[in-house]
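Morning F.,

Quick status update on the modeling queue. The single chain you submitted on Monday has been processed. Sequence for confirmation:
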Amino acid sequence: MKLVIDANIPAADACFGSLGALTRVPGREITAAHLQDADALIVRSITQVNDALLADSPLRFIGTCTIGTDHIDQAALAQRNIAFASAPGCNAEAVVDYVLMSLLTLAERDGWTLNERTVGIVGAGNVGSRLHARLTAMGVATLICDPPRAADEGEQAFYTIDELIERCDVLCLHTPLTREGPHATYQLLNALRIDELTPGCVLLNAGRGDCIDGLALRGRLAGRGDISAVLDVWEGEPEIDAGLHDLVSLATPHIAGHSLDGKLRGTWMIQQALSRHLGRPSALSFAEICPPPVLTSLHLQHALPAEDALRLCMRAVYDVRRDHDALQRQMQRHGLRKGFDDCRANYPLRREFATLNVQLSGEAVVLEGILRGAGFRVQTM
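Structure tokens below.
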């Protein structure tokens, strides 16, 4: 059996080596020629799997080690009787880590506190629902917009996006990209809605770049300059808008979910799916491929303001400013496309908040609830 696999997928040998011969190719460079004698294709989000890529290939299985699937033409797979699997939820915790770290970084930089804000979450799937749960546990007010869920579950717990724009100080987008249908998300935040954002609002997009009208956002930031933006996803990436990049408060290269834990979880989930497809159930456990973190515990003894304690613990695990600065540096050295892709291909080791055990003693025990709510393991002493 021959497997073609994105060269940046971690633990490929451990997960797939026993199933066949591996051919590694950078995700953007995978072509139909690579697949002419392949039985399985394993990708991430940067590989567009469509008719042109699949032409005349003997593929019987395609897996994406990601939550999102909008880069996969599933109708084309069905026509060719190619089995398909994705990894829903694999890096959702990492994306929530990214959102919380970004918001607390802006709060520190601009002189506000998160618990004074109302956060609107657009899309309550794997990421949005986890973000809602963590923010609620931290005591932060949230409103949720998810029209498909509202239609299925009733509208009582959900708001429209226009209600969120009117009532929220922070707006976080976590939707898939859909271009058709009653709940299409393409340019969901269009020029009119961007114009209506409340002054002082923070707009964060860690979903899909095409859900925002980038030109309109650039105009709002360059014109009135009265809102802030955090963008991890971009229209046309990796050829991102340099003018928009220069105006956002935090700019990162589609790495919100790039924790080691999330990547390994995605690889493992696709390995399990491929093993089932082959009728060879796997005994490989996730723990077998996930190494222990370098920093396992942090001890706090004295009382700190809650958000200072959060920033301290979060930055012990992950600091979003590193990714913002790396993108700026690489784009200056290598240009837009290469700088963007270099940051992704050479992304440094990053773990999730849940890998850190925060030990609290003395006055610091009052921080237990908010730290646990943020996603850390907490032990009082």
